[in-house]
Write a structure and sequence with these properties.
Helices cover 72% and strands 0% of the residues. The protein is mainly α. Among the domains are: 130 residues; 60 residues; 95 residues, Serine Threonine Protein Phosphatase 5, Tetratricopeptide repeat. The protein is flat. The N and C termini lie far apart (189 Å).
Length: 411
């Protein structure tokens, strides 16, 4: 009995020792499991939950430890996963702003490997999966702004370079322009028609001289002298007058009075198309209808009486100087006659101004035009009478009314 009791006691001691060793091994395994669970799988269970699970497992194995978890195991658990803001949970704390939050989905995608052993790309995926705090978000948004600043700086540098290049081109162009100006000036001097000796700039009409003030003084005097020559030669030598007017245009093409002179000289020289071009340009430049009658008569001279009548209709209801209005009426009557509307032409000239007692600046021309249309209508006696009225009103001998009257009287 004594030997049996001793053996039983020894057996019970060995069993107790084996149970203690088993609990120690289980505690170590439980701590390792907790490390793996919290670091790799991101389990949100607390230390107390894990300890309860361990005790339940011991109970099922027949080795329950009712005195609580082993102190060594508890310390290991805390260091591995328990204290807020430390260990594997630190990354969650920094990124999510909440203590003790673990990195979850990144650990799952890493197939159970601890977060500390993840490569850099996986760590970046953890940050993306767990979200960004305010500072990280601001930094990511601000990065493109920095790139836009770089682009703006590059654009500014490019614009500065282009401006410098243009300035260089301008300087080259100006040098070339001066060379061209000098050559053109020499050519123009050679082509300039010779001015008569008696031509003086002071002979130019004061209104015309005022319009030339926008030019340099020497150039204004040169242009003015050629305009004077054109005006003096227009009746005696229309071609020479035209040459002076054209030269004036080459030196001052943007001055309306110069274009007007060329247009009128061209009209008197029978250059209808050139007269139209110049007088239309004057009309655009001055926004006036001062020469609308001459424009309409040039259209008629070019065989386009319909256009002359269209211009006359266009001017109806507009405020025109009286002399321009009378001249346009005369041109429109001639256009109707060209179209075979002779009676209409005669009637169109009748009115208050057709009074033989009047001596207005336009009276002689109006009387003459009326007599001419009466001849076309085979009203010879009336035509003779109005030719005589025109001759009486023509103090400046602008018309050949007296000769026409003599022809009708003798014929």
């Amino acid at each position: 009995m004594t030997s049996s009791s001793t053996a039983a006691t020894i057996s019970e001691g060995e069993v107790a020792d084996q149970a203690d060793a088993t609990r120690a091994d289980q505690a170590d395994a439980t701590g390792a499991d907790l490390v793996d669970a919290t670091g790799a799988a991101g389990d949100d269970s607390t230390y107390e939950d894990r300890a309860a699970e361990d005790r339940a497992a011991d109970t099922r194995d027949g080795s329950a430890d009712t005195d609580g978890p082993d102190e060594g195991a508890g310390i290991a658990d805390e260091d591995a996963a328990g204290r807020p803001g430390e260990g594997a949970g630190t990354g969650g704390d920094d990124t999510a702003g909440k203590p003790g939050k673990r990195v979850g989905s990144a650990g799952d995608s890493a197939a159970g490997r601890p977060a500390a052993n993840l490569p850099d790309d996986a760590t970046a995926d953890e940050d993306l999966a767990d979200g960004f705090d305010e500072d990280d978000t601001i930094e990511q948004v601000a990065s493109p702004v920095a790139r836009e600043d770089d682009v703006e700086i590059a654009d500014a540098e490019f614009r500065d370079a282009r401006r410098a290049e243009r300035r260089s081109d301008d300087r080259r162009g100006k040098r070339g322009g001066r060379d061209l100006d000098d050559a053109a000036l020499a050519r123009e001097l050679l082509e300039a028609p010779e001015l008569p000796e008696d031509i003086e700039y002071s002979d130019l009409d004061p209104d015309v001289r005022r319009e030339l003030r926008s030019l340099p003084k020497s150039l204004a005097e040169t242009v003015g002298k050629h305009l004077v020559a054109a005006g003096n030669l227009i009746d005696t030598d229309p071609e020479a007058a035209l040459a002076h007017a054209k030269y004036a245009k080459t030196r001052a093409s943007r001055i309306p009075i110069v274009r007007e002179a060329l247009g009128l000289v061209s009209y008197h020289a029978g250059r209808w198309q050139e007269a139209l071009a110049e007088l239309r340009a004057v009309r655009r430049m001055t926004h006036t209808d001062q020469h609308i009658a001459v424009i309409a008569d040039a259209e008629r001279a070019l065989g386009r009486p319909e256009r002359a009548l269209d211009l006359a209709k266009e001017m109806q209801g507009r405020k025109l100087p009286r002399d321009v209005e009378i001249e346009l009426k005369i041109v429109a009557a001639g256009a109707r006659r060209d179209l075979g509307q002779v009676d209409a032409a005669v009637v169109s000239l009748q009115g208050d101004d057709l009074d033989p007692r009047k001596r207005d600046p336009w009276s002689a021309r109006l009387f003459y035009a009326y007599a001419d249309n009466l001849v076309a209508a085979d009203r010879t006696e009336e035509a003779l009478r109005w030719f005589l009225h025109a001759a009486e009103a023509d103090a400046e001998d602008e018309t050949d009314a007296a000769e026409r009257a003599a022809e009708l009287a003798n014929g």
